[in-house]
Amino acid sequence: MLEALSYEFIQNAIIAGILVSLVCGIIGSLIVVNRMVFLAGGIAHAAYGGIGIAIFAGFSIFLGTTLFAVVTALIMAFVTIKQRENIDTFIGLIWAVGMAIGIILVDLTPGYNVDLMSYLFGSILAVNREDLYFMGALFTIIVFVMTFWYRDILSVSYDSEYAALSGINVNFFYTLILILSALTVVIAIKVVGLILVIALLTIPIYIAQTISSSLYVMMIISGLAASVFTITGLWLSYSFDLTSGASIILVSAAALTVFMIIHRLR
User: What is the DSSP letter of 123?
Assistant: First the structure.
């Protein structure tokens, strides 16, 4: 693997893996604490519609997926705030419709797009400089938002009723967390794909949640853990010619299993 570091595509893959891992650690912690895993899963799968639109219209897939994922997050926020009793039904509906739009538009696009499968299951070795710039921009936005509104987001995440009484706009920050989740999904699709992104948003967080005492510490530990899992999965993917996204998730699952056994024995 050391000699492979001289290749630009390996360098790009490592940078992308670390960026995505840190973001997943930050936003994944919010998703788990706010019990939004199903919502994030709905956004991830619905984002396939953005891929279909981008392929059909002939513009950047990252841009199309970003816009579609953010719109999906806004719709989910509106629906879940207004129709909480029917939340599962609406999430399932948005999930299915988003994927259906993507599939139909890809079918209507002349020819076959060879990169399509990489957006479903990840292809970290195919990350280029343009992708890194896009990931870096979204990473910067997410970190800035979290730093600027950390205390408000912390209050809403752990005690929304008290936050509302304190004058914090709970609905705004609920929507903001969903938008940040959508952006995280977008930058993770090249690494683990839309199908597997939820695992990277939850497995490291479960480990971090068990051994941390605050949301801030949880974000740091989960980000570092996700980075280790991603780099290890990347090494396995390169060494044995395996699918990168699946390798990363299996490494994460194996680490979680070992952690749970050790934690149980202790």
Answer: -
Domain count, the chain: 1
pLDDT, tens digit (0-9, with 9 covering 90-100), for 184-211: 999 898 889 888 899 999 999 999 999 9
Q: pTM of the prediction? A: 0.91
Q: Which domain holds residue 239?
A: 3-265
Token output for 98:
């988003």
Q: Assess contact for 245 and 121: CB atoms under 8 A.
A: yes
User: What pLDDT, in 10s, does the model give residues 8-19?
Assistant: 888 999 999 999
Pull the structure tokens for residue 43. 């956004």
Kindly state the tokens that stand for 82: 């207004």
Q: Work out the number of other CB atoms within 10 angstroms of the CB of residue 6.
A: 8
Residue type at 111?
G
Tokens of 71: 């719109």
Q: How far apart are CA 136 and CA 187, in angstroms?
A: 9
CA proximity to 17, closest of 187, 250, 141 = 187
Tell me the CATH number at 91: 1.10.3470.10
Q: How far is CA 93 from the centre of its chain?
A: 20
Q: Which two tokens stand for residue 164?
A: 């509302």
CA dist 229 and 262 (Å) reads 18
> How is residue 108 written in tokens?
């209507």
